[in-house]
């Protein structure tokens, strides 16, 4: 518990130092490497004071958490956050723009959907959002910033739930297990059934698997 408290304190202090007196959001995305589904970004504004975010002590990079723990923390973040915005770029936009620009678009949309305008966005990684808001890219941000870590959890839970709904329409692809990533079972399903309208046709593994196969409609 002491280690978790120290990590939380470091992330909260990092946010305070970066924000100064500005209204700030942490931004992170999930789904860039997937073969299907949207790329999703979340923007999270946390309370300004460190004491107010103390019960977010266990918030960390979403990849280090179990699915159950992510859901628990996502609910806690929604309760404690000042505002949360979710942005998506769908598979068609990814194919038209490329994944980098689509990711920037999703992050910009997440910032636009906050209830409160922000003056600064801390963005995980080295790519700024497509937005007029001042962005500060932070390498390894989900381990350094509490607000970015919170955004990573919110984005991951939101996208996983999105893919669970897609699984109901296309159960043959196993979206409930791999959520769109390039697993062996996903590639086999692509070869066997062809792509859905939610697959990213510009991605090499999808092109290699489907050839001239027509899209599979739900139902």
From TrEMBL:
One of its GO terms (cellular component) is ribonuclease H2 complex. Endonuclease that specifically degrades the RNA of RNA-DNA hybrids. Residues 22-215 form the RNase H type-2 domain. NCBIfam families: PRK00015.1-3 (NF000595). Keywords: Cytoplasm, Endonuclease, Hydrolase, Manganese, Metal-binding, Nuclease. Its EC number is 3.1.26.4. One of its GO terms (molecular function) is RNA-DNA hybrid ribonuclease activity. Its cofactor is Mg(2+); Mn(2+). It comes from the Bacteria. A divalent metal cation binds at residues 28-29, 124. This is Ribonuclease HII. GO terms for biological process: DNA replication, removal of RNA primer; mismatch repair. It holds the Pfam family RNase_HII. It is found in: Cytoplasm. Gene3D superfamilies: Ribonuclease H-like superfamily/Ribonuclease H (3.30.420.10). InterPro entries: RNase_HII, RNase_HII/HIII, RNase_HII/HIII_dom, RNaseH-like_sf, RNaseH_sf. Manganese or magnesium. Binds 1 divalent metal ion per monomer in the absence of substrate. May bind a second metal ion after substrate binding. It catalyses: Endonucleolytic cleavage to 5'-phosphomonoester. Belongs to the RNase HII family.
């Amino acid at each position: 518990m002491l280690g978790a408290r120290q990590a939380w304190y470091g992330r909260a202090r990092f946010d305070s130092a970066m924000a100064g007196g500005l209204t700030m959001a942490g931004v992170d995305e999930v789904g860039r490497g997937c073969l299907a589904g949207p790329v999703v970004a979340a923007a999270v504004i946390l309370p300004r004071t460190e004491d107010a975010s103390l019960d977010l002590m266990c918030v960390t990079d979403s990849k280090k958490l179990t699915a159950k723990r992510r859901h628990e923390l996502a609910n806690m973040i929604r309760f404690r956050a000042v505002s949360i915005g979710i942005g998506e770029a769908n598979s068609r936009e990814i194919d038209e723009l490329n994944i980098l620009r689509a990711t920037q678009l999703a992050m910009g949309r997440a910032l636009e959907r906050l209830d409160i305008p922000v003056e600064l966005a801390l963005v995980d990684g080295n790519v700024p959002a497509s937005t007029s808001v001042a962005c500060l890219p932070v390498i390894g941000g989900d381990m350094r910033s509490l607000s970015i870590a919170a955004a990573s959890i919110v984005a991951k839970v939101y996208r996983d739930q999105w893919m669970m709904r897609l699984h109901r329409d296309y159960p043959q692809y196993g979206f409930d297990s791999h959520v769109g990533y390039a697993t062996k079972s996903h590639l086999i399903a692509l070869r066997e059934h062809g792509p859905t309208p939610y697959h990213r046709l510009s991605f090499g593994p999808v092109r290699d698997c489907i050839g001239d196969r027509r899209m599979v409609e739900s139902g």
